[in-house]
Hints:
By secondary structure, the protein is mainly alpha-helical. The chain contains 11 helices and 3 strands. It has helices at residues 16-31, 44-58, 62-67, 75-81, 90-96, 104-125, 127-148, 160-173, 193-206, 216-233, 236-245; strands at 2-7, 178-183, 187-192.
Amino acid sequence: xxxxxxxxxxxxxxxxxxxxLIAVNFVxxxxxxxxxxxxxxxxxxxLGCAQSVFVHQYGAIPRELTSDEALPLPAEIAAECxxxxxxxxxxxxxxxxxxxxxxxxxxxxxxxxLFVFGQATEDRLGRFRFLLFYLVCxxxxxxxxxxxxxxxxxxxxxxxxxxxxxxxxxLVLHPRSRTIALVSGFLPFRLPAxxxxxxxxxxxxxxxxxxxxxxxxxxxxxxxxGALLGLLARTPHAQARSSALS
Length: 246
């Protein structure tokens, strides 16, 4: 497994949207019950209830997305935490879920990939179109997962689908760029970006059916959406428009 640190694709402007997305994700995480520091077990039950209710209220639940109807809290959570009620719009939860994370490692992993590969895609598309691209990839990941698992009531949270879209776009827009990555966690290597990004996509396929709770199908949908939109950005008309915007 390789962890990216730096990509050498040059950019023409400061990637303000990439930086802003990273900042927003960190701020939102710190404001949620998911940001737990240390191992203090005081109030563990209250914290667990707050986290469960939070992810069900703001996370994207596949059954809600396919039916466009909000579900009540699962019976086991209501029995433990009380029958909490809240207003929820499934479509909006598909957006809000992109800015939520289950823990520090989840957040840091997503933001690292966004930082390394988001800059070049933002530079190619332009700031507004990159933001739109990012949100569309996140929606494609959430709804793709929902269509694949329409009966699931497990909330989806995380920027992984949108970030996977960024990886897909980088693969088709800058396949010859080279990335400094840590292989096996500590060995630095200079690898072609397509090796690193291809590894990511293959790992998602190989992990399908895993019981570790990760929505690999969502990553695949996000990656595919990003690659498709990246191919559209490579058309002569799109390239001329991008040059004019720059």
